Structure formats: structure tokens, C-alpha cells
Amino acid sequence: MRTTILQFAVLILLHINYVKCEAPLVKYKYGTVRGKYQTTFSGRKIAPFLGVPYASPPVGENRFEPPKDAERFEGELNATEVVQDCLQYSQATYKTSSGIYGNEDCLYANIYTPQLPKEEGSKKLLDVVVYIHGGVFMFTYAHYGPKYLLDQDIVLVTFNYRLGPLGFLSTEDEVIPGNNGLKDQSKLLQWVNENIEFFGGNPASV
Questions:
Q1: Which of 135, 134, 71 is nearest to 107 (CA)?
Q2: In this model, does residue 93 exceed pLDDT 70?
Q3: Which terms are listed as keywords in the entry (predicted)?
């Protein structure tokens, strides 16, 4: 009985170690992110990195400020789960029946890549598609699935940006000049230009 339990425990540890080794890792300008593998509808293996910060959290004194550079971090960032949407009013067809949902700390990107530069057999850097979600600057979110697009040789980037008053309030002066949601989009493109090569994307072809 003890032998059986010991064998079972060893198998579990080996499985955990195998899964950890299998997780894709990317070291880029701000730190190291750990993603996961999944497959497209055609069965192609891809590596999503979810919830990667492209700017500092726009909270507190930064609430109505233009986005600031992301902060460097130590260790590995778990990039296997989609982060919460930007703060917004919900609609009946959205996640809740009424009220407000989301989080002010929401300036994160999702990167989906079919190849990483250090993987065996990796070829040239791939074209990059940056998807800017709609929603009249008031609604919706970044986590649209990649399972069709990633059958092609591209790197896909989706991201959140500030919505509603937090993204577009303006006092028409220097206090709150406005359009921070658009400035978030510009900051994301800057982040892509500086970092997408680490994820197998070509910064010269976005």
C-alpha cells in the first residue's frame, strides 16, 4: 500500500514538472512571462500570453493621466489567465444584467504567437495584427479568441484601453485634456514596437 502511494506521488510530481517545463517562457524588456500552449481549430500549436501589462495601472493620481510606461518586475509573471475588463457599464447582453463591472487596473495585452524566436525551427519574424476592439468607447473587452486567425503565420495582439469617462473625460484644459483611451492605444503600439520581437513578431510589419 505504501509503495503504491509513493509511486502515485512520484507520478504527480513528474507530471507537474513536465507541465512546468512545457510552459512557454518569454523574457522581454520588463521581465519574464510564462504562458501556456493551446491549439487552433485546425490543430496548430500556439502560445498565448495573457494579461501582459503594457502600461502602469491608471489608478490613484494617475487616474485621468496619460498612460505611463509599464513597470519592470522580478520573477515570472503568470500570463495564463485573461485579466478583468476595463471599468464600464454593462448591458443586458453582456456579463451582467445591469450596473457596472470591470477594473480600473486594466491596461493589459494578450499576445498569441505560433512561434517563439528561440524555438527549434523558428524562421523569420512574423507579421503582427493588433486588434482594437469596438464598443463606441464605452463597452466591450480585449479577449477575442485567436483560434481562426492563428492558423495563419501572424502574431495577434489584443488589449484593453480605458473606456467611458475614465478614458474620454475632458475638462478642456491642462487638468484633464481628455482622450486617454486613445493615448492608451498609442502606448500599446509603442509597447508592441519595443517588445513584440521577443514574441516572434516583426515590429516593422504591424
A1: 71
A2: no
A3: Glycoprotein, Signal
